[in-house]
Automatic annotation (TrEMBL):
Keyword Cell membrane: no
Name recorded for this polypeptide: SnoaL-like domain-containing protein
Signal peptide start-end: 1-21
Keyword Glycoprotein: no
Entry keywords, A to Z: Signal
Organism: Byssochlamys spectabilis (strain No. 5 / NBRC 109023)
Length: 197
């Protein structure tokens, strides 16, 4: 099942951090593994990633450790190691959201889960959308995830079409400036949310 990715990303950025901070019980109620002290099985991982695809970010990110080690593989504007869940959300998902059109809505779906019941699993996801400049965004990604015995994601290696992400961000993130623009405020960048290149 596919759901609009722009809605997923917008809601995610706006609400996840605040919700997680104010709801300490969200993690245990959405996380059967936390009470059993084992790694999540394939069904549990599938439910978790389907929740993410359907826009239930509170459930998904309550299962991501606050100090997660999330590595975006490749050489592109999002590449690097993120050691904080909030920074990862803002600096990757937020930037992608800002490059995609809201209509037609972008979608994301879980394609496969490999593994379960052990420390590592792999999830294949498929994202479709249109960049603000009309660029077709058709990206498949694999997230190699490491779990702790409390059922939290503590490490991710994210693989995807980095050339497409590079093009999407390069062509859609930077605003167009002219000689009539008044430059009396500092522009943020070159790395992070609201980046201007």
């Amino acid at each position: 099942m596919r759901f609009p990715i722009h809605i997923i990303l917008a809601f995610l950025i706006a609400s996840v951090s605040a919700t997680l901070a104010s709801s300490p019980s969200a993690s245990s109620s959405a996380n059967p593994s936390s009470s059993t002290g084992k790694y999540p099985d394939k069904d549990e991982i599938t439910k978790l990633f389907n929740a993410f695809s359907q826009g239930n970010y509170t459930v998904f990110f309550s299962r991501v450790a606050p100090n997660v080690n999330w590595t975006m593989m490749g050489t592109h504007p999002l590449a690097g190691q993120y050691h904080n869940r909030t920074i990862f959300i803002a600096d990757t998902l937020g930037r992608l959201k800002n490059t995609l059109r809201s209509s037609p809505p972008a979608t994301m779906e879980l394609v496969h889960v490999v593994g379960g019941g052990s420390e590592w699993s792999v999830q294949e996801l498929h994202g479709l959308g249109v960049g603000k400049n009309g660029l077709k965004y058709d990206n498949r990604f694999a997230w190699v995830t490491r779990w702790n015995t409390a059922g939290q994601i503590v490490e991710v290696h994210s693989y995807f079409d980095s050339a497409l992400v590079q093009r999407l961000i390069t062509e859609n993130e930077s605003p167009i400036y002219t000689y009539t623009d008044q430059r009396d405020t500092l522009q943020l960048g070159p790395v992070g949310a609201n980046c201007r290149s």
